[in-house]
Amino acid sequence: MRRGLRAARGHGLAVALMIGVAGLIAASDALFASSAQLIAFLEAEIVARPLAGQLLFVLLAMLSAMLAFFSSALLVPVGLSAWGPLASSALLWAGWLLGGIASFAVGRFLGDTVAPGLLGSRRIANFREQLNARTRFLHVLLLQAALPSEIPGYVLGMARYPFHRYLAALALTELPYALGTIYLGQSFLERRSILLLALGLLAIVLSTTFYRLFRDGLGARPRGGRPARLLGPLGSPLYLQRAWAAAGAEKPPRLPSAATMR
User: Fold this and answer.
1) What are the φ and ψ backbone dihedral angles of 44, each rounded to 5 degrees?
2) pLDDT digit string (tens) for 191-216?
3) How many CB atoms lie within 10 A of CB 117?
4) CA 88, CA 179: separation in Å to the nearest integer?
5) Do the beta carbons of residue 130 and residue 158 sit within 8 Å?
6) Are 158 and 107 in contact (CB under 8 A)?
7) DSSP class per residue in 69-108
8) Taking CA 221 as the corner, what is the angle to CA 115 and CA 229, rounded to the nearest 5 degrees?
9) pTM of the entire structure?
10) Residue 51, SS3?
11) Distance, CA of 208 to CA of 246 (rounded, Å)
12) What is the mean pLDDT of the chain?
């Protein structure tokens, strides 16, 4: 669980750092002028090749949903300048959905071979202890919101989680993130640097909070999502053992097994 919390904090910190850098660029006249020239150049290339530009945008968004070291957020201002907020949101969301689906497929069919090299064996083992095919949808939703999308995709694919439920969680969580990313891009173009820095801090808080909710909710249930039958070493339920011990008895009674009651 601690590894997962560190991953959530790291995710929030990475997002906050990227937003913070954007805020600093927006606050600097020289840096913003240079970035505006680059955005204008890329916008002209996209306008000249509209279909290729949209496909490239979706492809980069897809890769950012599969690889932790890659982000498509840097291209959002270009998309906003070329297509506007509505089309850019749709393209970004579509790319992230495709990336999540690809991550799930890799985890499902090539997980033991590919996923450990991308995420690390210890991280994979940690999440495999928490997730399986019967994990509650709410827990998957919180995990998807707290961590980079490639982690739930690979792990839930390896756990053979139902694809339709994963896709629903992916779509529900990625849509507000796509809209938020577009809003951040618009704030960058409008040079609202203070707002960008504030949203960077909010990203850390939200990522950590979502994972804590996931951890606390999962900790209330045993693995598999079904109530555990708590048995003591002598075969009697654990709560009876504790009650017997509190009464001062040396040994709790042994309950008859199903075989002896036939």
Assistant:
1) -65, -40
2) 787 777 776 677 667 666 766 666 66
3) 9
4) 9
5) no
6) yes
7) T--SGGGHHHHHHHH-HHHHHHHHHHHHHHHHHHHHHHHH
8) 115
9) 0.69
10) helix
11) 39
12) 74
